[in-house]
Amino acid sequence: MAAEYLKEWNQEFPLKKFSAAVYEMRLEDKQALPADEFYQVLQSLEDEKYKMVVSRQWQDEKSEAKKEWYFRHDKIMDFFLVQNFLGETDAAEGLLVDRMGDPRFRGVYFLLATLLPLDAAKELREKLIQYAADTKDNTVSNTFVQLLRTR
After folding, report:
1. Whole-structure pTM over 0.85, yes or no?
2. Pairwise CA distance, residues 91 & 31, whole Å
3. Burial 83-98 (b: 16+ CB within 10 A, else e)
4. How high is the pLDDT of residue 146?
5. SS3 2
6. pLDDT tier at 26 (50, 70, 90 boundaries)?
7. What is the pLDDT of residues 43-63, one digit of tens each?
8. From CA 104, how far away is CA 122, in angstroms rounded?
9. Residue 19 CB contacts under 8 Å (≥ 6 apart), including other chains
10. Are the CB atoms for 124 and 85 separated by under 8 Å?
11. Between the CA of residue 130 and those of 3, 98, 108, 123, what are the distances in Å?
């Protein structure tokens, strides 16, 4: 899709920028994607080949046409969210710890079990186990451990 985006719009797919916007959207519990800033991205994601987002159209009380885009599935949103957690930056490291107990990011941790280098995934596993022991909340750690075992 990134190659087709480059060909169609003559620019790189703004993965980091879009992923950061999706992260902020998730923190604010918004469902609709930021169409003003990412119209071209949403057009590409909605393409018949990919169908990563769907649009909903309606008329408001003034009979003006309105359109909003939404991720077709939480797993697609998780793909973009996880981009914020990857890398060896302080920001990414901070997110790994800060969002452990946030149910909105469970799917991100499950993706991390397969995307992180093995040593980093094992380190995160230990942090998740410690978090579970301290909070009695093992909803993420159990599945993370199981996913890591399959690698």
Report:
1. yes
2. 24
3. bbbbeeeeeeeebbee
4. 97
5. helix
6. very high
7. 999 999 999 999 999 998 999
8. 22
9. 80, 81, 83, 84
10. no
11. 41, 14, 18, 11
